[in-house]
Amino acid sequence: MSKLCQGPSCHMYDTQDRKRGPKGNKRNITRTVGQYSYGNNNFCTLTCHNDWAKENMDRAIDYIGRLREPKAMTPENSWQKRENYYTWQRENGEPRYYYRNICTNEQRPLTESQYNDTSYTLNTGE
Ligand SMILES: [Zn+2]
Q1: Å from CA of 33 to ligand 1 middle
Q2: Model confidence over 54-113: pLDDT tens digits?
Q3: pTM of the full predicted structure?
């Protein structure tokens, strides 16, 4: 089943695809989230996403937990998996898959299975 757009005013935007009912008694209804979805598949348009955010974002963030202190990039939390797309570099011995520490610029080679393993990480910090 298709998900309904969560935009609080989705039904108030006047488009043909929202119209339902018999001639003379048409009314606009909330859209389903279509092929072009926004906000993690919860909204039909960026406008509906923004309408929801304006009404609810502060409460949602407070419910989840508002960030109170700045986060910091450290060497411990800065390993990112990368893939080397340059064939000529790989032919010169550089690895196809590698970790790059975006804080220190250190690089470490990865196997393909390590690269594809979503739980494999060198990150140890927050
Ligand atoms: Zn919508």
Answers
A1: 7
A2: 999 999 999 999 999 999 999 999 999 999 998 888 888 888 999 999 999 999 999 999
A3: 0.69
Q: Is the four-CA dihedral 96, 98, 103, 104 of positive or negative sign?
A: negative
Q: Annotate 56-67 with three-state secondary structure.
A: HHHHHHHHHCCC
Q: Is it the case that residue 9 has pLDDT exceeding 70? A: yes
Sheet containing strand 107-110, strands side by side:
79-83, 97-101, 107-110
> Three-state secondary structure along 105-119?
CCEEEECHHHHHCCC
Q: How far apart are CA 77 and CA 6, in angstroms?
A: 35
Q: Residue 9: helix, strand or coil by DSSP?
A: coil
| Ligand 1: centre distance to CA 39 (Å) | 11
Give the side-chain half-sphere CA count within 13 A for 104.
11
Q: Token pair for residue 36?
A: 């072009």
Q: How far is the CA of 15 from the centre of ligand 1 (A)?
A: 11
Nearest one of 55, 45, 49, 50 to 18, comparing CA atoms: 45
Which pLDDT score is estimated for 35?
A: 82
